[in-house]
Amino acid sequence: MRTDEPRPVRLQDYRPPDWLVDTVELDVSLAPSATRVRASLLLKPNPQAAAPAPLLLDGDDLTLVALSLDGEPLAPEHYVATPNSLTIAQPPQRPFRLDIETLVDPSANTQLSGLYRSGKTYCTQCEAEGFRRITYFPDRPDVMAVYTTRIEADITDAPVLLANGNLVDSGTVPGGNRHFAVWHDPFPKPSYLFALVGGTLAFVEDRFRTMSGRDVTLRIYVEPGKEDRCGYAMDSLKRAMRWDEQAFGREYDLDVFMIVAVSDFNMGAMENKGLNIFNDKYILASAETATDTDYASIEAIVAHEYFHNWTGNRITCRDWFQLCLKEGLTVFRDQEFTSDQRSRAVERIKDVRGLRATQFVEDAGPLAHPVRPTQYREINNFYTTTVYEKGAEVVRMLQVLLGPQQFRAGMDLYFARHDGEAATIEQFVQCFADASGRDLTQFMLWYAQSGTPEIVATGTFDARSKTYRLDMAQTLPPTPGQPTKEPMVIPLAFGLVGSDGRDLPVRLADGAPIERGLITLDKPAATYLFTGIENRPVPSLNRGFSAPVRLTVNVGEEELRFLAIHDCDPFNRWQAVHTLAMRLLVESTTAIRRGEPPREDPALVAALAAVLKSRDLEPDFVAQVIALPSEADIAREIASNVDPDAVLAARQALRRTITASLSEPLITIFERLSSPEPYSPDADAAGRRALKNACLDLLMGTGDSVAVARARRQYERADNMTDRMAALQALALCDSAERTAALDDFYRRYAGDPLIVDKWLSLQAAIPEPATLDRVKALTAHPAFSMANPNRVRALIGAFATSNQTQSNRADGRGYDFIVETVLAIDPKNPQLAARLLSALKSWRVLEPTRRALAQAALRRVAEAPSLSRDVGDIVERALAEG
Ligand SMILES: [Zn+2]
Questions:
Q1: Which of 165, 210, 678, 845, CA to CA, is 20 to 30 A from 23?
Q2: From the CB of residue 348, how many other CB atoms can be counted at a distance below 10 Å?
Q3: What's the pTM value of the predicted model, to 2 decimals?
């Protein structure tokens, strides 16, 4: 437990480090509860900093055993060592060598930060501040050093010993049962990218020849017996390596690239140089155990961590405020990779759905912060969707504004100019300004101002003058710490669609050029007058979601139906249907709260029918179009005084309408796509399954016995996890004997596989019915569940808190009570996990008054609990803060 009073760290207080580290030699002698770490640092005064300066090294829960300077033991009066720091007040003002010996206890490390054990495997997680839990060090990303790591361990306890870089030596230790391995990483890196692993691990191996002809060994290490589930991850890795060469000219730089999959991990994966460590859920896959969504996640995350080798590792962040420099950019890169590997349109729709579901919600609540925050108390709480996903959108906007060639030139300049450095956002954006000759000063506001810009666009057609006028205005709502805002640069891809469904040629009355179908709004308001327009067009704005904004346009239901069928931009075709459905669902929710019947909209049903009938659309795209807005989507749109029960009722009413009106085409498609074909995880086959299962889901709208039997049949006959899971999900929506039987059967089949049991836990936690809370509580006592494993906690309690809108927000407040009790129980052992779980309550202010008061009271109980971690204390304080 941390006892230090949290003091905010501020961007404006950044100073270069007083001391630099040239080389780090680590000698780690692994033992379950007493691992000895000898660190030998070559330190030198930083010429950029003020001298003379004391040497202040970070620690966290460390025990110092010995300390010497240039080979001489340091007398106790010359230093102060506490568990959290090591200070030498008057070090020599010249280069010197510091040898530090510490003792750490990996078995007792339940925070999963620093050196810990996952099962019997030793592994590390050093981002953001875990290295200081291994040895005293200037643990900040702008101190980059060359590391050599010697690991020693009992040969039966840890036959495999891995660290960053290339293996340079290994052997047995004379006189005993121990062995060692020495790894050397020639590339200077910050301490957060350090990693070591020791344990009993099997591996699969492959090779990759880089574009300059260098041979690289690729290895994926897993628990013995799971080697046959690594094939897709390995294939994804090779495709990612090739793609990064082709799309960005980036080549891999070491002789070996290793991935280790472990089962106890706080995050998805970690990009340690040459030695990525993964949550095994993002490595292991087979047709019988993984869904298409799992396969897609594995592909994206393996690629993401690999891409960090250049965007994050070779060029790292100067400080943690610049986290989006590596994360936003790398998410952009993995999204582009997926777009090239799969369907660009579908990837864009999925990414935007995700952005709106998480980031827009964060932006609208008390935890809103800029893509580059200016202060933090606990950096672990800033690994957020704003930094990652909105950060990616900001990079994408650079590409939209500059065009693909100038964007690539800017990236090339960035790699050339900053390789080997710890850089800032200013330096990154400057590369695009230099490469394009454009002034990007105003664009920097995307990194500085939080909140989602709102744009209102009004189109007016004048038949007499044959003109079309587009009036646009932007506002950026106040967010915590930012009451007033400046106008943003908003690139909007657009078209004016003529009555034949084709885009009209666009010409501005003032003769200003329109580049790449883009208008860029950079003032609070602007008017665009288009000439030569014969007939009233339908505006299609923010095509491809070119800017992450909320957009309101004065188009009616019939025009949206028209766009759904005719827009040449697939994203906006999807968006048109989504907008139709959203308008209807919001109106229905209001009606239901007034005691009136839910609304109906023939234009929506007609648009869905047209999309289902169209033969030239790819199946995965159709699946996206017919997937209704989620309850969370609807709540976000309503934005205040939300009653989750009314939202659910509105959505269920629309599902019933669709089932009743469109059952014929839905059944036809379902049956056409149900013909047996051997399972393949490729995008086309996955897309066909996605459409088939979207039909299955909609056909459950009325919950009649034919639909239940259909799902039951698919469940039993499925030869892959995607179809079996989709059928189970459909069955889970109706309280029936079939559901109970299928849930029991599913557990019996997969009880031995924790990653599949996680799916079973999540599915039950998400059932929107009053019995779910008690079911979830009972499952916490199930032998398959463990509070100590982050994957289990996220699967059961995380799913309940984030994806079950009605039951986590129960009107009696018991959902909140359960969430905060769990947070308080986990916090002493794993503060990062507890803080993540608590942040599920961040949208409490949008709820109707009864639930709002109950959620606030629950948050206050957390705030008043004794000895909170810094992680949870920070979240709860910001969640409750006024204004
Ligand atoms: Zn990342």
A1: 210
A2: 21
A3: 0.98
